[in-house]
Amino acid sequence: MKILKNTKGITMIEIVLVIIIFGISVGLSILYHQSSQIRADLRSQVSQFTSYVRLAHSNALSGLNDQSHGVHLETSSYTTFIGNTYDPLDDYNFVIDLPGALEIQNINLNGGGNDIIFTTSAGETNNYGSVDFVSNQINETTTIEITKFGTVTY
């Protein structure tokens, strides 16, 4: 009887190790992709919000409809509106909902409240201050500053 000394092949341990390494790699890539998507959503929503605040400022400054224009803030959405006060039932309101992973927090506006209102002719606001867009899933916060004169920075 002849005994084979130099057999070649793949052992079960090698197969299991390859599967484990592949599984870890796939898992890490999925986590990285998800956090990248949330980070992109955060940047996009901050940019979109600043555009709406600038539009409300521009509309008030130009005297559109001869009324004030503003933005009402909530935790999971914000609303552009026309007039000196926010009316949730107004037909001219435009609501923007945030993706589920994002929230508006730390609304610190002069005089308190959740409304940034730009007056006609001067286009100024008495509700200047800061607002945070937050993603708790990736532990990232972007602070947006609104000045009395309607400039927005982040």
Describe this structure in words.
It is a single chain. The chain has 154 residues and is α+β, with helices and mostly antiparallel strands. It has a single domain, classed as minor pseudopilin epsh domain (minor pseudopilin epsh fold, 3-Layer(bab) Sandwich), CATH 3.55.40.10. 33% of the residues lie in helices and 27% in strands. It has one helix and eight strands. The protein has one helix at 12-62, and strands at residues 69-73, 77-82, 94-97, 103-109, 115-118, 129-135, 140-146, 152-153.
List the helices and strands and how they pair.
Layout: H1 12-62, E1 69-73, E2 77-82, E3 94-97, E4 103-109, E5 115-118, E6 129-135, E7 140-146, E8 152-153
Antiparallel strand pairs: 1-2, 1-5, 2-3, 4-6, 6-7, 7-8
Give a short overview.
This protein is α+β, with helices and mostly antiparallel strands. The protein is built from one helix and eight strands. The chain has a single domain, classed as minor pseudopilin epsh domain (minor pseudopilin epsh fold), CATH 3.55.40.10.
